């Protein structure tokens, strides 16, 4: 069956089918073609990230998930406080990128890397990233880790809230 080469949804669908059949490298080609037709195609970025995770290419997967999130927010028309952190490349070292990488590694169960990235984000803005981490379900699996608690408790101990 021939697909329309300029139809991003057709490439996306073919990629999903190939991935479900275990043809991961071929599915990546399809997701890349879909993304080439619409760079902010967040579903394709996300599926590409999932395939890269399966191939244990975690840094590339992390980049794709960041791109997916950025594209999704862009599509919704949201103004983010730190757009560049959402669209960060793996070598960028912005607090938003560090936070996103912490989420990714927490979900993966890689506590060491999750804590290291979260520490970077919190060092930049303790209040913002501590509160976010305490409320983010991505950190549920590591929330009982003493290092996570130490990082996020900093917010509770250092915040000065006026009592009215």
From TrEMBL:
Coiled coil: none annotated. TPR repeats lie at residues 8-41. Keywords: Repeat, TPR repeat. The keyword Repeat applies. Pfam families: TPR_11, TPR_8. InterPro entries: TPR-like_helical_dom_sf, TPR_rpt, Ycf3/AcsC/BcsC/TPR_MFPF. This is Tetratricopeptide repeat protein. It comes from Hyella patelloides LEGE 07179.
